[in-house]
Specification:
Elements: H1 3-21, H2 49-64, H3 68-96, H4 101-131, H5 135-149, H6 154-166
Helix pairs in contact: 2-3, 3-4, 4-5, 4-6, 5-6
Length: about 180
């Protein structure tokens, strides 16, 4: 056995010992211990219900000021954020279905709440298009609301009424009494 062949195992042993003595390094920071109510970094982000609500408030202010171009932009942004939130929460809910029912239920409720707000933003956007005398842009939005909420929900019923007023549908709808 030559010198190099004897050196390789010793070098490997020395390297292994030095690695074992080094402090561990993590690619992610250690989890902070504390209550979950303290950990809310996204609350001030657009990717949160409060962030999307702020955009919705800006849209309502623009509508009040009759600045319909800004209102359209803000309502489209709110719709997009609420839709992402709804989809993300639904994906999480589905991931936990059968594993942890409390996480599943919480995420499902969050998905539904975001979806309802998305549909409210969609309905308001359709109304703005009506004010702008662009019914061709309002019709598909109103149909989306009805499809998402159902014709028997309050918002679905209002959306159908808008379609009737536009002249897209010709028959009145009366909500059945169950």
């Amino acid at each position: 056995m030559n010198f190099i062949d004897r050196l390789i195992p010793l070098a490997s042993l020395a390297m292994g010992c030095s690695l074992a003595m080094m402090p561990s390094v993590s690619a992610q920071p250690e989890a902070v211990q504390g209550s979950s109510s303290e950990l809310r970094p996204l609350q001030s982000s657009i990717l949160s219900m409060s962030g999307a609500s702020q955009v919705m408030d800006e849209a309502i202010a623009a509508i009040s000021a009759k600045d319909y171009e800004v209102a359209v932009s803000k309502l489209q942004e709110a719709r997009q954020v609420y839709n992402q939130l709804s989809n993300f929460h639904l994906d999480l809910a589905n991931s936990f279905q059968g594993l942890d029912n409390s996480v599943y239920d919480t995420e499902r409720r969050s998905a539904i709440a975001a979806g309802e707000m998305r549909d409210t933003a969609t309905y308001r956007l359709a109304l703005v298009h009506r004010v702008q005398e662009k019914p061709e842009l309002a019709v598909p939005l109103l149909i989306q609301v009805i499809r998402s909420q159902s014709p028997t929900s309050d918002l679905g019923e209002k959306a159908y009424q808008q379609l009737l007023e536009i002249g897209f549908v010709s028959r009145e709808f009366t909500r059945p009494n169950f």
